[in-house]
Design goal:
This protein is mainly alpha-helical. 52% of the residues lie in helices and 9% in strands.
């Protein structure tokens, strides 16, 4: 069963590209990723600092037809660190929406754990935020390109190296770490998630 939308890390890539040009140049000169600046912004703030709600619909969403992106609750005292955190949180909330839909389709009360890979999994701050926002342990995959890994597993079965996909998974799939939710933050993110859902409803008038 597949559930998803273009509401992931591309939203952060857009923000970095449009608004962190100076920081990106500084990061390049220092030989580090500009996304390290974003991780630092998360460490410099907390879930309790601000109630900005970001709808990560810059590139569309299947939550509402014609949905577009929005920032709710932005005030003059907010810094770019607060905005970066809101983008991280908005992406987490969008994934929570998808996870809840999958659970509703399967009849499962909750997910025992969620496996995470890709660009967002490179950020320990984002992985912890996912765990807190979804109130679910996050298991980070060791492989960075899971589509390629899956294709290699299928090739291994087809060529007779493995007798089944189950065997291929046992031999080739590796998990790097498990991150548990922080009980002190879970409640705050549940509150913010409800505001996220309300923000979607409130912005319907502006959708095309």
């Amino acid at each position: 069963m597949l559930e998803g939308s273009p509401t992931g890390t591309a939203n952060l890539e857009w923000f970095v590209r449009q608004f962190l040009k100076m920081e990106t140049e500084q990061a390049d000169r220092a030989g580090i990723s500009p996304y390290a600046v974003c991780d630092a912004a998360i460490r410099n703030t907390s879930a309790f600092d601000s109630d900005i709600i970001f709808l990560p619909f810059l590139f569309g969403s299947n939550a509402v037809q014609g949905a577009s992106s929005s920032l709710f609750g932005l005030e003059g005292w907010h810094s770019h660190d607060h905005m970066i955190r809101s983008i991280f949180e908005g992406v987490c909330f969008s994934h929570r929406w998808h996870v809840e839909r999958i659970l509703s389709f399967t009849g499962m009360p909750s997910a025992g754990a969620i496996r995470m890979a890709g660009g967002g999994a490179k950020s320990p701050e984002w992985v912890q935020m996912f765990a807190d926002a979804l109130d679910t342990p996050i298991i980070v995959a060791q492989s960075k390109e899971l589509g390629t890994l899956g294709a290699a597993m299928c090739a291994g079965v087809a060529s007779g190296i493995f007798d089944s996909l189950e065997t291929a998974v046992k031999k080739m799939a590796r998990m790097k770490e498990a991150v548990n939710p922080d009980a002190a933050t879970v409640g705050k993110y549940s509150e913010k998630y409800q505001k996220y859902l309300q923000a979607i409803e409130a912005s319907r008038l502006y959708y095309k």
